[in-house]
Write a structure and sequence with these properties.
There is one protein chain. The protein contains 16 helices and 15 strands. It is of the alpha/beta class. The strands form 3 sheets. Strands 4-3-5-15-14-6-7-13-10-12-11 form an 11-stranded mixed beta sheet, sandwiched between helices. The chain has a two-stranded antiparallel ribbon with strand order 1-2. Helix 9 packs across helix 10 and helix 13 packs antiparallel against helix 14. It is globular. The two termini are 46 Å apart. 44% of the residues are buried. Bound molecules: NADP nicotinamide-adenine-dinucleotide phosphate.
């Protein structure tokens, strides 16, 4: 069935039912070692994951690893430009869950990015990046322990997808012409805007289906968190990009207030309900005045609209959510993208799950990772309805390759995420505990060691860090 790889003799497939994995006790999990420092971090991560499973479950559970190829390693085995062989795609499809190290971005061969290709081919629409602080990790933030957020980044659309044409290209020119001559003049709200003829052009599609399936997963995740963390923030730049980013926000709220009506309350609804709880005699108009700053300066029809909103909320959910019951629900709010970059720094503890589109999510997940110790510690997952790939979030760091010195934390924590996704929480918890204890006792690799005060000398090697994590499972 495969051209150049052979699945392990023992083990069974993970299958997906109703968008959730059904995991046997002996799953076969394909892994891509990764290029560059993949040779260091993957063996370290595999050892930690295997030890955690053995410690948590004895002989009852075991992962059967299946080596598959991508990146430079794939070209060595399959030939020039064979960065992503058919075998690899087939194995991921067959076994459902895979884990990978970093991959070099190909030069030539027609693939823009292997990571993006893997996400698109498998329709892995949610890129999930948890950012939590491990005590003792050097951080540029004064109170990094307040950061505990998970970014849900849409993976399959937005301008970042790369549907674009260079300046001066034939199609780019045609498109500019068509827009300038026909589409822009036919849209009165665009006035007499024109696109400069020497522009490059990129397309930013944001769909309702794409937005809503992402927000749905984010809310489902929030429902599994402890009560205090049950919050989903829709991050967008909808004040400017109304029909893309603004629509994302509106579609997100639609999911929250229809599919998850019994479980969710929006921030605005929570204000309306709590205003009435504080003063049951409050009139609709007084309530409207409280929720809308500047109410008095609005035109009468806008004031009327807000009053109708108050009325509609009280009628729809006072019974189910009023009397303080809303405090038990998932709180769904939204924030403008630029302000959230401030707020994750100034008020990080107010945020839990941040759901957003591709480009915002890219920036936001790295910004959050920086607050808790940088990319070496940031895990990631790409999740779809029938497949999930867990991955190191950093690149191949080629100058450190083969030196047994790089931090394997990102891929190890991705392994912990994978175990959680599989429902093997006990093993995941051991890994997180081992990492927490190792860092707190200053057993760290060079990247963290050099930033600690005083610096740790000598730092642990990559393989020694993995062993420290294992030694700290139980201590
Ligand atoms: P990079 O590989 O992430 O490395 C840049 C620097 O970040 C390293 O030199 C190192 O800094 C630090 N770093 C990265 N991983 C680390 C780790 N595990 N532990 C500690 N420090 C770590 O970025 P790049 O050099 O821009 O990219 C190299 C290649 O990777 C490119 O081909 C790029 O396209 C690819 N890439 C792949 C992925 C992926 O597969 N997911 C993601 C990003 C980039 P110091 O040397 O200062 O310690």
């Amino acid at each position: 069935m495969y051209e150049k790889i052979t699945p392990p003799d023992a083990g069974a497939s993970i299958i997906f039912k109703d968008e959730e994995p059904i995991v046997p006790d002996n799953p076969i999990i394909p892994f891509i070692r990764g290029d560059g420092t993949g040779v260091d971090i993957w063996p370290a991560a595999k050892k930690v994951i295997d030890e955690a499973v053995a410690t948590a479950y004895g002989n009852k559970r075991k992962i059967h690893w299946f080596k598959i190829y991508a990146g430079d390693e794939a070209c060595d085995l399959y030939g020039t430009y064979q960065y992503l062989p058919e075998d690899t795609l087939k194995a991921i499809k067959e076994y459902g869950i895979a884990i990978k190290g970093p991959l070099t971005t190909p030069v030539g061969g027609g693939i823009r990015s292997l990571n993006v290709a893997l996400r698109q081919i498998n329709d892995l629409y949610a890129c999930v990046r948890p950012c939590r602080y491990y005590l003792g990790t050097p951080s540029p933030h004064k109170y990094p322990e307040k950061v505990d957020a998970i970014v849900y980044r849409e993976n399959t659309e937005d301008i970042y997808l790369g549907i674009e044409w260079p300046q001066g290209s034939e199609i780019g020119q045609k498109l500019i012409d068509f827009l300038n001559r026909e589409l822009i003049p036919a849209t009165p709200e665009h006035g007499n805007k024109q696109i400069r003829l020497d522009s490059g052009i990129g397309i930013k599609p944001i769909s309702k289906i794409g937005s809503q399936r992402l927000v749905r997963r984010a809310i489902q995740h929030a429902l599994r968190l402890p009560k205090a963390k049950q919050k989903v923030t829709l991050v967008h730049k909808g004040n400017i990009m109304k029909y893309t980013e603004g629509a994302f926000r509106d579609w997100g709220y639609e999911v929250a207030t229809t599919e998850f009506r019994a479980d969710c309350v929006t921030e605005r609804e929570s204000w309306i309900l709590s205003n009435k709880e504080k003063n049951p005699e409050l009139t609709v108009e007084e309530n409207a005045r409280f929720i809308e700053p500047g109410y008095n300066t609005l035109t009468p029809d806008k004031q009327e609209k807000i009053s109708r909103e108050v009325e509609a909320v009280l009628e729809a959910i006072w019974e189910s959510h009023g009397g303080g019951k809303w405090q038990e629900k998932v709180l769904v709010n939204d924030r403008i993208a630029d302000s959230i970059f401030q707020q994750i720094q100034t008020r990080p503890d107010e945020y839990s799950i941040l759901a957003t589109m591709n480009l915002n999510g890219d920036y936001l997940s790295d910004a959050l990772a920086a607050l808790v110790g940088g990319l070496g510690m940031g895990p990631g997952a790409n999740i779809g309805d029938n497949c999930a790939i867990f991955e190191a979030t950093h690149g191949t760091a080629p100058k450190h390759a083969g030196l047994d010195r790089i931090n394997p934390g990102s891929v190890i924590l991705s392994g912990a995420m994978m175990l959680e996704f599989m429902g093997w929480q006990e093993a995941a918890d051991l890994i997180k505990k081992g990492i927490a204890k190792s860092i707190a006792s200053r057993q760290v690799t060079y990247d963290l060691a050099r930033l600690m005060v005083p610096p740790v000398e000598p730092p642990l090697k990559c393989s020694e860090f993995a062993q420290a994590i294992i030694d700290n499972f139980q201590s």
